[in-house]
Write a structure and sequence with these properties.
Helix content: over 70%
Oligomer: single chain
Shape: elongated
Largest sheet: none
Strand content: under 5%
């Protein structure tokens, strides 16, 4: 019986129903009225002042720049302190760092699907060795046994160079095997 009443109601109101879309901002006005009456939070954010947004972006950029400058100055100061303790260590570091950088460039130029895994593993190992070197620099600055630490620092560089050389040899072997296999398959 109620179902019939609903059908009758919709039949009577069929010509009077409004199918038009609400005007722009209708939802926002509705939510504001709802908040005023019941204290419910809005779903859509209110428009903020554009100067506040610009100010927050500028503050973020300023913070990032100051953190970057601080990090850069800290790294430089460690190198300068090591150079004061041992000028030879600074020269050795410069020489080995350039040599390692060249070998890393050569290694990255050899990257292919066959060598990608070994190169990525090598880069992880190099990062570990660099971290160990940084710890040794800190130990040196903190007044540890300088001869022992300097010897360990040089050994660290030599280990990195040997690692890069061994990986380059392995990559050459991979390339040779691949070329041999390709030659065997081509007719």
């Amino acid at each position: 019986m109620k179902k019939d009443n609903l059908h009758e109601l919709f039949d009577k109101l069929q010509n009077d129903l409004d199918f038009a879309e609400p005007t722009n901002g209708h939802q926002q006005r509705f939510l504001e009225k709802l908040n005023e009456s019941k204290g419910v939070a809005t779903l859509a954010p209110k428009k903020k002042n554009s100067w506040l947004r610009i100010l927050s972006v500028a503050a973020t950029i300023a913070i990032l720049l100051s953190v970057g400058i601080f990090q850069f100055n800290t790294a430089r100061s460690i190198d300068e302190k090591v150079a004061k303790i041992s000028p030879e260590a600074s020269k050795t570091q410069f020489y080995f760092a350039n040599l390692i950088e060249e070998q890393v460039k050569d290694l990255n130029s050899e990257k292919s699907p066959e060598t990608e895994r070994i190169i990525n593993d090598t880069m992880v190992q190099l990062k570990k060795l660099e971290f160990n070197y940084t710890e040794m620099e800190q130990d040196l600055l903190n007044g540890g046994n300088s001869k022992l630490i300097l010897s360990a620092m040089i050994t660290n560089f030599q280990t990195r160079i040997e690692l890069l050389n061994e990986v380059m040899i392995q990559i050459e072997n991979i390339k040779t095997i691949k070329n041999t296999n390709d030659a065997n398959y081509t007719i």
